[in-house]
Amino acid sequence: MTSEQIGYRGPTACAAAGITYRQLDYWARTGLVEPSVRPAHGSGTQRLYSFRDVVVLKIVKRFLDTGVSLQNIRTAVQHLRERGFRDLERMTLMSDGATVYECTSPDEVHALLQGGQGIFGIAVGVVWRDVESALSQLHGERIDTGETLVGHNPADELARRRNRAV
């Protein structure tokens, strides 16, 4: 199965992104990071997030942890959304705490660093691989059938039994 055919429920997205369910809910309700597979429709329905959604959730978390304002993060996420989230894994997002910059080449990173101000960066490829690793051990859901896909977690006895039963 490809990552475009798998969705992740809220608790799984939270675990992979390192955020609380309260943050996830707030970000979805305010439009910061909405689930692209299936939004919630009233009480009791389950949101379903794509792999890329979870990567963006983790990026947002990293920016928050470094002190970037939610307003600037919102601008950065909007920029990524407008790009269609293409080439995320090859991108570096840089910030001076006030503005978020997209860098796609070492020259762009170097030019920002030469400005003399304090800058930090998020190599999205590293975040991408972290999320891939985390989700491989968690449960996903087939988008077309809703079938639960059990991740490979060697410590999960119940998952091992389910995999043997199939």
From TrEMBL:
Ranges for domain HTH merR-type: 16-79
Membrane recorded as keyword: no
Coiled-coil features, chain-numbered ranges: none
InterPro entries xrefs: DNA-bd_dom_put_sf, MerR-type_HTH_dom, MerR_fam
Transmembrane segments: none
A Pfam family assignment: MerR_1
Superkingdom of origin organism: Bacteria
Keyword terms: DNA-binding
Gene3D superfamilies, sorted: 1.10.1660.10
Name used for this protein in its record: MerR family transcriptional regulator
Source organism of the structure: Streptomyces thinghirensis
Lineage: Bacteria, Bacillati, Actinomycetota, Actinomycetes, Kitasatosporales
